[in-house]
Amino acid sequence: MKLTKRLAVACLVVTALAPTVQAVDNDFGMWYSISAEKKITKKWSAEIEAEMRTRNDARTWDRWSAGVSAKYKLTRWLNAEAAYVFLNDNNPEKISYHANGDYNNWRPSYWGTRHRFNVSLTGKVGFGGFEVSLRERWQYTYRPEATTERYDFDNSLWEDVDVRGKGSNVLRSRLQVEYNIPKSKVDPFASVELFNAWHIDKVRYVIGAEWKIRKKHVIGAEYIYQTINGDDDDNDPNSNILSLSYKFKF
């Protein structure tokens, strides 16, 4: 009974912060990731990860990415991390209209690359079976200049258009609560993360669990609700997301 109450409290911390979900305004997507983590020394570890995401009710591939990161244990309760991620995005189509409502031009969806760098500090404290952590991450993303096509309805022709290069900085603040169930290989957790680019662009609410199949194999499953409050560099709508992951530790 005590365990059930503790888990309920952990879940309610995140659920109480989440806004009311209106399904009509939200997309649904699936995220899939696979990673490998290597412990180099007592303080150093490295990880590589590949991920694929979908949107449009999981019918359209949204992006794929590959990244590498290194983590250093500064103290028993504080870790530092640095990472690079290469992203290939399926940018949604765009349609513009004249003032009278007639079509102006149409730019189909297209794939484009981005480069992402981040550094993080994560502090954690434990009490009972709980572990509470706060991660502060500075993230810089650069989108190189690209050329794509759009259709001009007025002149009935296709034309090349330049998509200018763009860099963006985001501070990501994540508060997470995890519970270590005694004599269990499953650890549930819940978190809330704010994406701050001079104002809160995005909020991500997560509830999930990790299952240690064996010492070296970990499977994860998460439900994510994500809200967009401004111009988001990831081109994401408000979304309900199911995330599945696999990690190999060696």
Helix-strand layout with pairing:
Blueprint: H1 2-15, E1 27-39, E2 44-55, E3 60-73, E4 78-91, E5 94-97, E6 103-107, E7 110-127, E8 130-143, E9 146-152, E10 157-163, E11 166-179, E12 186-196, E13 200-212, E14 217-228, E15 239-249
Parallel strand pairs: 1-15
Antiparallel strand pairs: 1-2, 2-3, 3-4, 4-7, 5-6, 6-9, 7-8, 8-11, 9-10, 11-12, 12-13, 13-14, 14-15
Report on the structure:
With about 250 residues, the chain is mainly beta. The chain is about 5% helix and about 70% strand. The strands form 2 sheets. Strands 1-2-3-4-7-8-11-12-13-14-15 form an 11-stranded mixed β-barrel. Strands 5-6-9-10 form a 4-stranded antiparallel beta sheet, with no helix packed on it. The longest helix has 14 residues, at about 1-15. The protein is elongated and about 70 Å long. The two termini are about 35 Å apart. Residues about 1-25 have low confidence and may be disordered.
Main features:
single chain, 250 residues, mainly beta, 1 helix, 68% strand
What best-fitting shape do the alpha-carbon axes yield? elongated
Spatial separation of the terminal alpha carbons: 36 Å
Mean pLDDT: 89
**What gyration radius follows from the Cα positions, in whole Å?**
21 Å
> Which structural category fits the helices and strands?
mainly beta
Strand content: over 45%
Q: What is the total tally of β strands?
A: 15
Fraction of residues in helix: under 10%
Give unreliable regions as ranges: 1-24
Number of helices: 1
Spatial strand order of the main sheet: 1-2-3-4-7-8-11-12-13-14-15
Question: What is the ordering of alpha helices and beta strands?
Answer: HEEEEEEEEEEEEEEE
> Largest beta sheet, briefly?
11 strands, mixed, barrel
